Amino acid sequence: MPESAQDSAHDANRDPSGPTRRTTLRTAGAAASAAFLLPLVAATPAAHADQSRAEGAEGPPADGGALQRAFAAAAAEYGVPLSVLLGVSYLQSRWDGHRGAPSVTGGYGPMHLTDAHTALLGAPHHSQGTEDARGDLARPLRVPKATVPEPRRLPARLRTLGRAAELTGLSAEALRGDESANVRGGAALLAAAQKRLGLPRSEDPADWYAAVAAYSGADDATAAGVFADEVYSVIRGGASRTTADGERVSLDAAPAVAPDTRQLRTLGLASPARDPRVEAPKDVSCEWLPAPYEEFGDNDYGNHDLGERPSSQSIDYIVIHDTEGSWDTTLKLVQDPTYVSWQYTLRSSDGHIAQHVPLKDVAWHAGNWYVNAKSIGLEHEGFLTAPDAWYTEAMYRSSARLVRYLAKRFDIPLDRQHILGHDNVPGTTTGTIPGMHTDPGPYWDWAHYFTLLGAPFQRTAGSSGGLVTIRPDYDTNRPVYTDCETAGQACAPHGSAAVRLHTAPSADAPLVKDIGLRPDGSDSTTGVNDTGARATTGQQFAVAGHEGDWTAIWYLGQRAWFQNPKRRPTAVSAKGLVVTPKGGAAEVAVYGRAYPEKEAYPEGVPVQAVSPLPYKLLAGQSYPLGLRTRGEYLWATTFDPAGHKVVRGQDVYYQIQFGHRVAFVRAADVTVRRSGK
């Protein structure tokens, strides 16, 4: 979820914005999810044909794998068309069982049967740690405290596993941990929905539209319909992939399938028109649930700032968060004026979206005021503490559609210098670095996400290109993480988008250190929330050497090594522009925000310090250039926006990929050149 949302970094030729504000959170109040939903839309694009666990990976024949046979057997047992069962499962888990590990919302197995009664966090994302989501040092530090209501009864969409147990006679343990049993449970739920709706057990997949829509658990017709449309898009386009456990599963394309969408009425769900204030593509389900803009005691206000973006400041970033709280709790919090804010929340079960803050305004979510002023924040529902293991395909797809829409509207490049995780946002000053948040973490599948965005990470140069793009195979890349459930204990094995960085080309060598994260010089760890020695899929770094199966990169002012064997590479070659210290300079200062020089501030606007971080870019090192921008600061500390002011300076900054988080250097201090030989 969002951090201190106001100090934000911005892209070249984009406007940095000002402070976000935040106050002590009162117990979240009124909640009711409003239902302003868009009209039902046409089916979405087909699934990619082959999303295998590794390029060129071999697998068993499509009709011979145990999981493929389990789908066929369950479809026959419960009278559900095989394509319907496979399509629903693909949109939930891409057919992965995740070895019994639950999703971020307590869903299990290929059918995402939910059993979330023990998975709620005690504190939501923005109430954890010391990060101020505004990130504006012009305001007092505020870390909101929230009392999360214990629900008397979780919504039905978060407890489908119990219903599946009743229908099949199988134990909850089997439904959670045995993939064949899990598939039977999902088939039973679909068949029961078809019967409840008074519809025949037809062999024609087109006759199952309402049951598929009901499987989403959505409480309105638009969200249920969009989910069903996605499933039928998969059915029409077909899909084939090898799961993380080596199971090859295929769904043959059936382009002629035309479901009877009129069946949606049998669900009896409300279908209000889309609110005109919603800013989202037409092929997603999105409601308007506004965050408040209110003034309260001691000249305080919340929970965002009014603006006129992009005319006042350019929007350069989209920041990916996870909520670390349930959908209902998250919606209550964002409606509290004393809490913080973000633009969108996305629901796990069906990908439904709620918009809270107009895109012209500045939300408080990233922990960096410069980034807040230049960004849009997306919160993805996820509240499982141990660990945030996997996210549903429905949410990935909905998020990708939204990001594509936003990127096109605001001319935001689809790369990892502009599409940031909250864990990639830099601290604004040395003192804020240890408190910066680490979501969505190493289990967010950036490679799959960017494939859905239409911008997959690919080789762009030969071995002499001078850069590498981190790209391990998500399913088979399983570094050991600790501290998911118990301090010091290993997390359950799971695919990861990150590689670990060492001081020498050996797995026994110490991990590289992050002096900002640990000012005492102590070692980085394997902790799931420790980003000190981690490079993540899609990030680019300058090559600093090769030795055997190991590649070195420049990282936080030091040479860092990661395992990159030719037979199973974890990165691909790339080329581009890099920055290096100007001739004669031994080192260059690095910053967490691109603020103007002091001469740029008009009377009445306090000068904000241009504070270097504790790192140094040393002579002989180079770092990939992400964007170029002039220094900029949004002064916004009053409820009345008439007092707000965008300060623009003459100093030019370059954003670089410096470590796991991005950073800035002054253009006057560095030379820009092409990477490689």
From TrEMBL:
Residues 301-441 form the N-acetylmuramoyl-L-alanine amidase domain. It catalyses: Hydrolyzes the link between N-acetylmuramoyl residues and L-amino acid residues in certain cell-wall glycopeptides. Keywords: Cell wall biogenesis/degradation, Hydrolase. Transmembrane segments: none annotated. It comes from the Bacteria. InterPro entries: Amidase/PGRP_sf, Amidase_domain, Lysozyme-like_dom_sf, NAMLAA_amidase_2, TAT_signal. Its EC number is 3.5.1.28. PROSITE patterns: TAT (PS51318). The keyword NADP does not apply. It is an enzyme of class 3 (hydrolase). One of its GO terms (biological process) is peptidoglycan turnover. SUPFAM superfamilies: Lysozyme-like, N-acetylmuramoyl-L-alanine amidase-like. Residues 1-28, 511-532 are annotated as: Disordered. Residues 522-532 have a biased composition (Polar residues). GO terms for molecular function: N-acetylmuramoyl-L-alanine amidase activity. This is N-acetylmuramoyl-L-alanine amidase. It comes from Streptomyces malaysiensis.
